[in-house]
Specification:
By secondary structure, the chain is mainly β.
Length: 487
């Protein structure tokens, strides 16, 4: 990354890993913008696709309203109505579908594949935005939903996996054009290619700068997985690469300008997590390496993450504690020690929505799921253009000075420094963010303190061996360091 590398020390980068810091400590956001209402999309929807077209319009297909999949297609023209924008109705798709995929093809059309209509479907179609026509295409060889469909080259698209009722599907297939029978009459087909090492769905796929397709996490055999694989289009072989620190589904994966991949949040066994990891695909001879990064302020899944100006990651919404969420967070990836900053709240709660960066720099949010009863919204929020890039305030100069020994077997000493007369707390958390032990409520006096932990929880019961996090919090800021308990 620019202005410093995320790889310069795992311990330094795991600061604030689980996101337990007070918002007031980092109140100054790196970019200034606000949300305003954009024209509403009807019908309301979530689990839809949103695809930026070559003519700078946005194509939205299908989705779900309540318990019903949709076949409707809408196009948003952001330049209409003096920049307010307008929604245009297109002909309906052949199939009702949610949790499907939309992939832009070089011929100018958009390939719609798979999805769910009560059961997984195989149907595919081609939407031509220029003529507003929809053409039926050959079906997928396997029914798929919550799969990925990634453009390779030469008109080819790679479809990977499927949630398959949480079992995870290992098969993959490639969409490609055959010889032209006559001018203007191309023919297409789906053909099988190499299968995954681990069947999965609700994963994420990113095309790396070297042309490989990286598949990350997802659901495998009814539980989230931390495993990752790469597909080489030249050999059509899947190779298992480095696994993440945490298993996750419902996460996001964003390719950064330096070729690394940022993964944010997700679900691990029914709990939203705040952990973030960075994948370096060039490390370890191409097998890659994951580094832990600062965590988000809240556990999140089914959110969005958008790269702006090649520098800022903006998170919007999430499924959190049983409903949609309206909070946003921002990270400046150019900082040597990056942090998550609370951004402006959206106008409505949402999850399973879409976020698209428009050509003029505005961020458009479409639809989303509001509550646990599958209630959908048609509300759309749009940001003002980025107004200002600011130098961000550094966290207050209080810290965990040292943890020694680490790893430890029966006792470790934790040295902390408090720069002012501010109440503080020092707590031990597990990897899900649950407080295991509160070591001291804090008197607030300035100075250096040494506290100890004996590997027991607040009830005096020994905890299992494993990875834990020591978190120091006060009104001045927060910091978190890992510690390993071994027996």
């Amino acid at each position: 990354m620019r202005r410093g590398s995320f790889d310069n020390g795992l311990v330094a980068l795991v600061l604030l890993f689980l996101g337990w810091f007070p918002v007031t400590a980092f109140a100054q956001v790196p970019i200034e913008f606000s949300w305003k209402s954009a024209p509403t999309i009807l019908p309301e929807r979530y689990y839809h696709t949103a695809t930026m077209l070559q003519d700078n319009r946005l194509l939205v297909t299908g989705g779900r309203r309540g318990y019903d999949p949709l076949r409707t297609v809408r196009v948003f023209d952001p330049s209409a109505n003096n920049g307010i924008g307008t929604w245009i109705s297109f002909p309906d798709m052949t199939n009702r579908r949610e949790r499907h995929q939309a992939t832009v093809l070089p011929i100018g059309g958009v390939l719609i594949s798979g999805g769910l209509d009560g059961v997984p479907i195989r149907g595919c179609e081609l939407i031509d935005p220029a003529t507003a026509q929809i053409q039926k295409l050959p079906d997928l060889l396997d029914a798929r939903y919550e799969h990925t469909a990634t453009y390779l080259s030469a008109g080819k698209v790679l479809a990977v996996g499927s949630k398959d009722y949480d079992r995870g599907l290992p098969t993959c297939e490639i969409f490609e054009s055959l010889e032209v029978a006559k001018a203007g009459d191309p023919r297409w087909r789906w053909r099988r290619t190499g299968s995954l090492n681990f069947g999965r769905g609700k994963h994420r796929a990113v095309k790396l700068r070297d042309g490989r397709i990286l598949v990350i996490g997802g659901v495998h055999n009814y539980v989230p997985t931390a495993t990752c694989e790469t597909f080489d289009p030249r050999t059509e072989v899947w190779t298992q690469v480095a696994s993440m620190f945490l298993a996750r589904e419902g996460h996001t994966a964003t390719l950064l300008p330096d070729g690394k991949v940022l993964v944010i949040g997700g679900d691990i066994g029914g709990e939203e997590i705040s952990s973030c990891e960075l994948f370096d695909p060039s490390a370890n001879g191409g097998y890659g390496k994951w580094n832990l990064l600062p965590a988000t302020n809240f556990g999140r899944k089914n959110h969005t993450a958008t790269l702006i100006n090649g520098r800022f990651i903006v998170i919007t919404g999430a499924w959190r504690t049983g409903q949609g969420d309206r909070s946003t967070e921002i990270m400046d990836t150019w900082r040597t020690s990056p942090h998550w900053y609370i951004g402006p709240s959206m106008l409505v709660d949402r999850s399973n929505h879409s976020a698209t960066l428009l050509p003029d720099g505005r961020l458009l949010l479409v639809g989303g799921e509001l509550f646990g009863n599958q209630e959908a919204t048609g509300a759309c929020d749009i940001s003002e253009k980025t107004l200002d890039v600011k130098e961000m305030a550094s966290p207050a100069a209080f810290s965990i000075v040292s943890i020694a020994p680490n790893p430890f077997t029966s006792w470790t000493s934790i040295t902390i420094s408090i720069p002012g007369n501010t109440p503080f707390s020092l707590t031990i958390h597990d990897v899900l963010g649950r407080i295991i032990r509160t070591l001291d409520p804090g008197t607030g006096s300035q100075g250096t303190y040494v506290l100890g932990w004996d590997g027991r929880d607040d009830a005096g019961v020994p905890v299992p061996a494993g990875l834990y996090y020591c978190s120091l919090r006060s009104a001045e800021g927060a910091t978190t360091l890992p510690l390993q308990y071994v027996k």
